[in-house]
């Protein structure tokens, strides 16, 4: 008979006690994967929430002034804001073409007022700088998401491996004992099934969080794209000379 206190403690404890060495190795791997998954989920959730908060602060400050380079001139900082990284990249490229340098000093406003407008081709370089900033920031937001995807897709297979291995050992034990009965098979089958249960406990939260984080990151990227288009429109309206002639090159 099985110890009554162990059975009363719950099926999981009973199953773990009768798991094979291979099953306990699988459970250890799943435990490590669960720790990594939860650490990534919590960290990413905090990063995205902070990014949204900083984006709101930056956009509020940006829309208070109709001068698109004002925050750049004031050397404003919005750490953790993906939209601000796009703004800074665009302003640096724009001031480089306007003034020949992206450095901000006490003469910045005066030099900006007397600077000649840039050509549409130069504005294309500004747009390219903002597109690069969007891509780089998106990659930073999506970093480590592959680990969550691996936990979602890999954990069930790892748990299934432990279950199949455990069932195989259980049937092998029954064959060696020569007395096939429910009491003989139950402990081995129970110990085998715990790996699949544990794997699902790892994969299910990771799946929900992965979908939520992927949707949230996509929303932040769209917000960056929209702001890049808005900033490009304002910079083009104020600092681009559409009548500028493209220099001709003689053969």
Written overview of the protein:
The model is unreliable at 1-9 and 246-251 (pLDDT under 50). This protein is mainly alpha-helical and 251 residues long. It is built from nine helices and no strands. It is rod-shaped, with a radius of gyration of 30 Å. Helices cover 79% and strands 0% of the residues. The protein starts with a helix and ends in a 12-residue tail after the last helix. The longest helix has 58 residues, at 182-239.
Topology of this protein?
Layout lengths: L3 H6 L1 H7 L3 H43 L6 H4 L8 H18 L8 H7 L5 H23 L2 H33 L4 H58 L12
Brief write-up:
The protein has 251 residues and is an all-alpha fold. It has helices spanning 4-9, 11-17, 21-63, 70-73, 82-99, 108-114, 120-142, 145-177, 182-239. Residues 1-9 and 246-251 have low confidence and may be disordered.
Count of alpha and pi helical runs = 9
Structural class: mainly alpha
Q: Biggest sheet, open or closed, and with what strands and sense?
A: none
Order of helices and strands: HHHHHHHHH
Which spans of ≥5 residues are poorly predicted at pLDDT below 50? 1-9, 246-251
Cα-to-Cα separation, first versus last residue: 98 Å
Helical amount: over 70%
Percent in strands: under 5%
The geometry reads as rod-shaped
